[in-house]
Amino acid sequence: AVDQEWSYMDFLEHLLHEEKLARHQRKQAMYTRMAAFPAVKTFEEYDFTFATGAPQKQLQSLRSLSFIERNENIVLLGPSGVGKTHLAIAMGYEAVRAGIKVRFTTAADLLLQLSTAQRQGRYKTTLQRGVMAPRLLIIDETGYLPFSQEEAKLFFQVIAKRYEKSAMILTSNLPFGQWDQTFAGDAALTSAMLDRI
After folding, report:
1. Among residues 120, 124, 122, 134, which one has the least CA distance to residue 166?
2. The pTM is what?
3. Which of 2, 47, 67, 74 is 20 to 30 A from 96 (CA-CA)?
4. Close Cβ partners of 18 (under 8 Å, ≥ 6 residues apart)
């Protein structure tokens, strides 16, 4: 401060600014760890030539995160290798940078966690902390593996509990018309779930 010839007020203002910046960086690092991304991905790193089904402008508009404020869901469908997971993580990382709590999981991992918690009598706690607490829940690989009837019901409960309360991003390599095959062949449950997505 003496070398810079700062007044006490300037020095104090500088210290407060540095403290605020350090707190923001620590919070962002903590939210990134809590999100459990398999790797950090950004929009800048995404090759938009893969996204043939959606205009680049539409995909870039998701970067505004307004869908989170409106408690809307995003579903990214397409074959393997087009970058659905990359885009989902990029949106999640943008949310983390904006100070929003995010959680990334695969559908299989989520159902394993919920079914284990149910068997151990911790279902409500796990549902509240792991599913309802994050403002944005990203569920990757929906439909990649078929669900049992019980798993399909658990997945439906996740969708129903978050419906119009918090945002989600789901990725799948299956078109909606084939989702009932994944959800134990239960067309009624699948239809009710898709209505909430």
Report:
1. 134
2. 0.88
3. 47
4. none
